[in-house]
């Protein structure tokens, strides 16, 4: 969309406020709203100023002035505001007009530019399957003398004896028993359908929605693939719609990877492929899973760099509560066709040449999508450049249920890091592939590791309630 068309949209829809948004290192969006009358062509030239020192991981107070530069191709009319509001995603620049090297969205743009300059292909396409929970109630506390969390859902297995319903209505979802049941077991058809309606209204093409495996309201909505940066934009819109629709229904949605102990967590399975114009480059009929040699090398790059990648694709301490065997968690660094126990699955059902892709199942939605998608692309391109063969390195193919292998067989399969600190150690040791084309910088990596180390430390030094069960009577 041109600037002229954006201004026309403001006029035609009687927009009162224009909301300028940017994303921080964690992937959370921030915004500043201007009266629509104050927005004109110069706004798209001069941008909107903000205080970078108030955003974790950005700038110190002595150099805090920063500028949001609106992207006219990333707009939508907000479906939740009482006053008509147009939302515009922005890139971040320094006051002297330089693209800010720590801006996640600019990193995604540089990743796309690097792909095109590499000669490998013209575009990388991404499609995340971002799972979430819809709860009725959430409460948590972490203080000097108290630490707790509590969530509840009318669907939850633990509520078979709840009396607050005025006569328990039954049909609760069993632990690991929530995959695509019909009503009345699935109570959230309408709320998911409303989320989808709003996603379509703001421009995303929804492909399907359904209840997911876990009890207590786990859900998934899939939207159509797009190019790297556009898909990251869409994922932020997706989370915004999901969070606010749940709130309108008097519920709360979370993309936290492991909000419940003892049941499946929420992942973000990322489908990806590379095209040269209209030609798919990952397809070769007759080969394993109809994968081209380029696709195999791309897989090799992701699996080889996976320990470091996880610092960006699974960047929370909670991420590693999900990444444990037995809950469909893709902890095994192998690839396989149609096998959901592998870190990389090759979809084979109803796949056309243009639909041939890989699915990296390890990531979750605590990831900043601009950083995570860019890092995956760079790892894959490094695999293509260095011709990393995943078969020769022992990364598969593994066409078995890995969870059913013997301990001796499992010991031969490399696994993901066990903690955020381990993933950060791996990133510190293995990040040269991210520096290709100056997509990421050494400054960004060092700053990111420092920021995430502080999160890991904040969790590690706090007393866990279960420690009282284990040790109070010592």
List the helices and strands and how they pair.
Blueprint: H1 3-12, E1 17-23, E2 29-35, H2 43-46, E3 48-51, E4 65-77, E5 85-93, H3 104-118, E6 123-135, E7 137-142, E8 147-152, H4 189-201, E9 206-211, E10 218-223, E11 226-227, H5 228-248, E12 252-254, E13 268-276, E14 279-280, H6 293-304, H7 306-313, H8 319-322, E15 332-337, E16 342-346, E17 358-360, H9 369-386, H10 407-410, H11 420-429, H12 442-460, H13 465-471
Parallel strand pairs: 1-5, 15-16
Antiparallel strand pairs: 1-2, 3-4, 4-5, 6-10, 6-11, 6-12, 6-13, 7-8, 9-10, 13-14, 13-17, 16-17
Helix pairs in contact: 3-9, 4-5, 5-9, 6-9, 7-9, 7-11, 11-12
Walk me through what this model shows.
- A hairpin with a 7-residue loop joins strand 4 (65-77) and strand 5.
- 31% of the residues lie in helices and 23% in strands.
- The strands form three sheets. Strands 6, 9, 10, 11, 12, 13, 14, 15, 16 and 17 form a ten-stranded mixed sheet that branches.
- It has helices at residues 3-12, 43-46, 104-118, 189-201, 228-248, 293-304, 306-313, 319-322, 369-386, 407-410, 420-429, 442-460, 465-471, and strands at 17-23, 29-35, 48-51, 65-77, 85-93, 123-135, 137-142, 147-152, 206-211, 218-223, 226-227, 252-254, 268-276, 279-280, 332-337, 342-346, 358-360.
- It has two domains: 3-100, Roll (Ubiquitin-like (UB roll)); 123-471, Glutamine synthetase/guanido kinase, catalytic domain (Creatine Kinase, Chain A, domain 2), CATH 3.30.590.10.
- The N and C termini lie far apart (66 Å).
- The protein has 474 residues and is of the alpha+beta class.
- It has 13 helices and 17 strands.
- The mean pLDDT is 94.
- L-glutamate binds at residues 264-265, 322, 328, 340, 361.
- Mg(2+) binds at residues 129, 131, 212, 220, 269, 359.
- Its cofactor is Mg(2+).
- Pfam families: Gln-synt_C, Gln-synt_N.
């Amino acid at each position: 969309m041109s600037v002229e068309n954006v201004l026309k949209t403001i006029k035609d829809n009687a927009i009162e406020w224009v909301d300028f948004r940017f994303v921080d290192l964690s992937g959370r969006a921030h915004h500043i709203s201007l009266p629509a009358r104050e927005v004109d062509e110069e706004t798209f030239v001069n941008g909107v100023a903000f205080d970078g020192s108030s955003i974790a991981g950005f700038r110190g107070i002595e150099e805090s002035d920063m500028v949001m530069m609106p992207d006219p191709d990333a707009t939508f009319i907000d479906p939740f505001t009482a006053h008509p509001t147009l939302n515009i995603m922005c890139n971040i620049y320094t006051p002297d007009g330089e693209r800010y090297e720590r801006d996640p969205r600019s990193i995604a743009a540089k990743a796309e530019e690097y792909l095109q300059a590499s000669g490998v292909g013209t575009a990388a396409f991404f499609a995340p399957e971002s799972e979430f929970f819809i709860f009725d109630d959430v409460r948590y506390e972490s203080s000097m003398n108290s630490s707790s969390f509590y969530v509840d859902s009318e669907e939850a297995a633990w509520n078979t004896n709840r009396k607050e319903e005025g006569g328990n209505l039954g049909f609760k979802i069993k632990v690991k028993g929530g995959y695509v049941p019909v009503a009345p077991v699935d109570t959230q058809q309408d709320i998911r359908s409303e989320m989808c309606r709003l996603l379509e209204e703001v421009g995303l093409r929804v492909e399907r929605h359904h209840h997911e495996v876990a009890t207590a309201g786990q859900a998934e909505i899939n939207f159509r693939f797009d190019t790297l940066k556009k898909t990251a934009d869409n994922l932020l819109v997706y989370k915004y719609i999901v969070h606010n629709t749940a709130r309108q229904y008097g519920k709360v949605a979370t993309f936290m990877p492991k909000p419940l102990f003892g049941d499946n967590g929420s992942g973000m399975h990322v489908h990806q492929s590379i095209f040269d114009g209209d030609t798919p480059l990952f397809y070769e009929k007759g080969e394993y899973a109809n994968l081209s040699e380029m696709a195999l090398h791309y897989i090799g790059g992701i699996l080889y760099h996976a320990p470091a990648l996880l610092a960006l694709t699974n960047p929370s301490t909670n991420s590693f509560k999900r990444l444990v065997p037995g809950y469909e968690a893709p902890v095994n660094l192998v690839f396989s066709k149609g096998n959901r126990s592998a870190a990389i699955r090759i979809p084979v059902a109803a796949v056309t040449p243009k639909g041939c892709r890989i699915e990296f199942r390890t990531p979750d939605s605590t990831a900043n999508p601009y950083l995570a998608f860019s890092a995956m692309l760079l790892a894959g391109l490094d695999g293509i450049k260095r011709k990393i063969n995943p078969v020769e390195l022992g990364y598969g193919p593994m066409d078995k249920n890995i969870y059913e292998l013997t301990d001796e067989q499992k010991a031969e399969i490399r696994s993901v890091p066990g903690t955020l600190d381990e993933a950060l150690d791996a990133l510190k040791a293995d990040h040269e592939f991210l520096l290709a084309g100056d997509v990421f910088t050494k400054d960004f990596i060092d700053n990111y590791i420092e920021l995430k180390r502080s999160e890991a430390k904040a969790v590690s030094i706090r007393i866990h309630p279960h420690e009282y069960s284990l040790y109070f009577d010592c």
